[in-house]
Request: fold
Amino acid sequence: MSGATGSTQPAVVTEAWQDEFDGAEGAGIDSALWALNLGAGGWGNNELQEYTADNVALDGASHLAISATITTNADGSTAYRSSSIVTTQAFSYGTLSARITLPTGQGLLPAFWLLGSNIGEVGWPQSGEIDVVETPNDTSTSHHNIHGPSASGTDVVANASTDHVEPLGDDWHVYAVTRTPGNVRISIDGVLVASLTEATMPDGMEWVFDDAPFRALFTLAIGGNWPGDPDETTPAVSTMLIDWMRFEPAAG
Reply:
């Protein structure tokens, strides 16, 4: 995925951090910890949704709910709405993890991912992008791709995916990424599913994953280049739930 965050350099988290998403049902995100990505325009992937502030809220049971909605306008056109949030702070070396349920449906693309906090200065993919988990359409296969630049600035991808005998579905799972100098590791429920080092990165990729701390994003896209358009089987409302997100700094 490619996307946007603010252009200013955020504060850097170097100590233990967490958001348990406690609060009353319908309450918004904590603006000290999270910002909204708003608007439409395809988000670089020909996506259909407009990201709004109305499609993300606490559910009153210590979860954050991001809901993708598909409705029909008075003129018969279809409205696609969802939400995208990004941390106001960036995270240094350590492990960032989140306990999530991922929705299933044709044209849906839920994601937990990271972007280098220097994206406003260097652009994408020079910022680096770490897709901790993405599940286009269904959750029988999860994707854990890592994007970096070539010398000429084009996107080079280290692709990784995991097939699941039991689809991830609506069950809770912990998705985590650990960043240390020269190393990125991604896991599901403590099981390593992807890793990247300077020695193992694809030919032509430049290592940029130590250039800046990373901000975290949760998004639920509708349609676009990868999952394709929703169809008559796609639910009118689909929800991605986040139980918590936590950061544990690297030792030393």
Summary: The chain has one helix and 21 strands. Helices lie at 119-122.
